[in-house]
């Protein structure tokens, strides 16, 4: 099998030219635009992870049973993942900045309602609303990013940093939200995404390019001709949203119901059937929401798989470590949040080093190496990290230092692989798929891993997945 040049090539500069894009933003505005978009992306993942530590406290306040807590925890991710492909199509059709602003309005409104929720139902609705807004914001932000960095080399460097922002958001969600909820109220962390949404709405027109989409309502082809405005593919959007949401819900509730129960099988099988129908429809559609050939690129598929597996590994560890420290060792919510401080420090350092490493060794090699280091961290955690007889500093901390090193490298390299050579008019689609992998990876693999029971089994299973994907990536990196 012949490897794409980005996988085997040694430098980010080797990324091939993509379709022509808009003019580069003025240098003085580029840093501000990236900072704003990066803060927005971090806030989306922060919101996903922010309930992990305070969830038991919410349950006590509203008198919730375990099934209610599971649904509340998953509500944001269900609507987020289900609508991402459609959000990408909207960004590609109407322009990144316009869809970004609309999404921030929905996201911000839901974030404002969440801390005011007087009942469980109101809070659940607010979490679903946040996911709807996030599904518009995430792909639109990447569409604008493509406009800010239209040249392939600059865009690849930006994506190397962008790939690590989600890890920062997830870590901040566990660390900062846990600390704030322990010191004040579980309602306070919702003010952070609200503030970021307000900042994005206020500053977007000033620092983001007006043409926040690499293609406007019409698409230019290689000969400079114009094609007709792209359709919204509403049947495809309906099938994909319903299929992904139902299948994800079926996987989420495996923590409450058995795999062969009606509560799991009905939504899971219905979701899989709708997803299959979506794929059939897309093959026949003249303007599909997800072009079938888009995922046939080995480089892109590998990057998306690495994003999903890495997200699953880190999300699983956040959940299991939080539960173990609070339930198994009797730690407080504040002390549990403090346990992730070394993880966050190493993550920030490793994230800054990922870009130069990719420039020297290539995105594929760094992704493979990151997955290998991450696998080592998971194995250490599985073998000694969750033994309450072994002190945290000796048993758990080494694994929590290795995992962020690997995850930062994997995310950075995989983000480049997943978006390389994507035509400018499909930047929203690429952003939607990247975030879908980030959302579905934890849902699918976490459900499968937790079905093994205990702690060691799930962590070792994820370590095996890291290792297998690192091997495949490594083979592709060295094959021409």
Characterise this structure:
With 480 residues, this protein is mainly α. The protein contains 18 helices and no strands. The chain has helices at 5-8, 27-49, 55-62, 66-94, 96-113, 120-148, 152-183, 191-207, 234-252, 262-284, 298-328, 333-338, 341-361, 363-385, 392-395, 397-419, 427-450, 456-477. It starts with a helix and ends with a helix. Mean pLDDT is 82; it is low at 1-28 and 213-228.
Global outline: globular
Strand content: under 5%
Estimate the mean pLDDT confidence: 82
Point out poorly predicted stretches.
1-28, 213-228
* N- to C-terminal distance: 7 Å
SSE pattern, N- to C-terminal:
HHHHHHHHHHHHHHHHHH
**In angstroms, what is the radius of gyration?**
21 Å
Main sheet makeup: none
Name the helicity range.
Answer: over 70%
What is the structural class?
mainly alpha
Specify the number of helices.
18
List how many beta strands DSSP finds.
Answer: 0
Topology:
Elements: H1 5-8, H2 27-49, H3 55-62, H4 66-94, H5 96-113, H6 120-148, H7 152-183, H8 191-207, H9 234-252, H10 262-284, H11 298-328, H12 333-338, H13 341-361, H14 363-385, H15 392-395, H16 397-419, H17 427-450, H18 456-477
Helix pairs in contact: 2-6, 2-7, 2-8, 3-4, 4-5, 4-6, 4-9, 4-17, 5-6, 5-8, 6-17, 7-11, 7-13, 7-16, 9-10, 11-14, 11-16, 11-17, 11-18, 13-14, 13-16, 14-16, 14-18, 17-18
